[in-house]
Amino acid sequence: MIAEIIEAEPEEITPDADLVSEFGVDSMMALEILASLEKKYKIIIPEEELPNMTTMRKILEVTKKYIEEKEE
Known about the structure:
By secondary structure, the protein is mostly helical. The chain has one domain (about 1-70): Orthogonal Bundle (Non-ribosomal Peptide Synthetase Peptidyl Carrier Protein, Chain A). It is about 55% helix and about 0% strand.
């Protein structure tokens, strides 16, 4: 899903790769990633989290946080 948005091969995206500097993710792509995560997991991630979502590892952490909050 994210690989499609940033137009990269999934195997190119390592957990700690900086999506902005290494893959050219801009604000529109970041919003698209956010929206796709929200839709897939039926959660709401505030846009204020975007600066915290610069790598796959960080995206996973933020997404997991909101999934866990939803389940409580």
